[in-house]
Amino acid sequence: MDFYLLLQFFLGLVAIINPIGLLPVFVSLTSHQTETERQQTAKVANLSVVIILLVTLVAGQLILNLFSISIPAFRIAGGVLIIFIAMSMLQGKLGEVKHNKEEDREAAAKDSVAVVPLALPLMAGPGAISSVIVFASQHRDLQSMIGMGVCILAFGVLSWMIFKTAPVIFRVLGKTGINVITRIMGLLMMSIGIEVIAAGLKTLFPSLA
After folding, report:
1. Of 161, 152, 189, 149, whose CA–CA distance to 18 is shortest?
2. pTM of the complete model beyond 0.85
3. Cα separation values, 190 from 168, 184, 206, Å
4. For 127-148, how does the pLDDT look when each residue is reduced to its tens digit (9 = 90+)?
């Protein structure tokens, strides 16, 4: 089992989903809830993310085969999407990319926001799903699949712990601190996206290598 691969996969999930950057959204969506309800929302949201990503890890390749999509083509498309989200993070407009104002109003009217919009599409969005499918398509051996599954579970625990302490973290970092972290994550995401696109182009056009 390649430890560097698993570390890269885990850090990629952290950068793409960026649970710290989502803290302001989490706090605002759960502002009407009691502390107990807020903790339950955090638990359900992160459990949903883990389930979505595990299903993607196992069945992602089957979905590509169903639509006759090649891995290099999907890799390039996923890389472009990751860069698009990264640009929005660097510009401080992440929320506008992942959900629009109408969806915000609909979410505010619902009692439970754990699954929609928190888990999907805010956390387990197109960028995270694309990343999981690309990694899984490159490493189909049993050990790597189990390792990536463990990484997804570990990310779920980490994200849940961050959400669990959301009010404290938000007070300590403040809006400015969270904005800085979001932009750093955006820069890391852009680097990941460029690497993914480069790998796809090299496979489609071997002469570029």
Report:
1. 189
2. no
3. 29, 10, 23
4. 888 889 888 888 888 899 999 9
